[in-house]
Amino acid sequence: MESPFDFAHLDPSCDPPEGYAAAFELLAAFWCELRALRSACPQDAFISDFSAHLETELVAAALVLAIQAELLTAR
Fold first, then answer.
1. pLDDT value of residue 13
2. Tens of pLDDT along the chain (75 residues)?
3. How large is the angle between the packed helices 45-74 and 18-40, nearest 10 degrees?
4. What single string gives the DSSP state of each residue in 54-71?
5. Rounded CA gap, 14 and 30, in Å?
6. CA 65 – CA 21 distance, rounded (Å)
7. pLDDT value at position 43?
8. How far apart, in Å, do the first and last CA atoms of the chain sit?
């Protein structure tokens, strides 16, 4: 499954700072690993619930990071 943390760069001058871009890439890698784990163990309820919880936490972290990046590029 493709990561939901990818975004199109319409204006390179509005790209987030390098550290933020690296953080988005890290979140995308975690997302892919969690999806792979979930797919590898569909019959294990604990792994499925745990990975779903971690996916939710990643989405929340990405939202906070995106808001912060937006605030930085708006300055």
1. 64
2. 556 655 555 566 666 778 888 888 899 999 999 999 989 988 999 999 999 999 999 999 999 998 888 888 776
3. 170
4. HHHHHHHHHHHHHHHHHH
5. 25
6. 10
7. 92
8. 34
Tokens read off for 64: 């906070």
Tokens of 19: 């550290």
* Amino acid identity at 8: A
Which residue's structure tokens are 């890290």?
A: 26
| Cβ 28 vs Cβ 1: under 8 Å | no
CA distances (Å), 67 to each of 33, 43, 71, in order? 24, 36, 6
Q: Which two tokens stand for residue 44?
A: 């294990």
- What is the model's pLDDT at position 50? 93
